[in-house]
Every structure is written in C-alpha cells, then in structure tokens.
From TrEMBL:
Organism field: Alterirhizorhabdus solaris
Family recorded in the similarity comment: Belongs to the EcnA/EcnB lipoprotein family.
Regions crossing the membrane: none
Official protein name in the record: Entericidin A/B family lipoprotein
InterPro entries the record matches: Entericidin
GO cellular component assignments: membrane
Signal peptide (from-to): 1-18
Length: 43
C-alpha cells in the first residue's frame, strides 16, 4: 500500500514538472494556483 501511494505521488510530481517545462513556468503555475485558492477562499 505504501509503495502504491509513493508511486502515485512520484508520478503526479513528474507529470506536474513536465507540464511546467521550466523553473519560471513552475513559479507562474504555483502563483496562479495560489491566486485561485485565494479567490475561492474570499468568496
């Protein structure tokens, strides 16, 4: 069970990093995700 969870986390992380392509892109993605959470929380 623990190996399965670790695999899913690793796979998700790799897919997320592949989608960002660059460190700058990752920063922008994190910033937009943070903005979305903040907007949802303020409603």
């Amino acid at each position: 069970m623990t190996k399965k969870i670790g695999f899913v986390i690793a796979l998700t992380t790799m897919m997320g990093l592949a989608a960002c392509n660059t460190v700058g892109g990752a920063g922008k993605d994190l910033k937009s995700a943070g903005s979305a959470v903040s907007d949802a929380a303020s409603k």
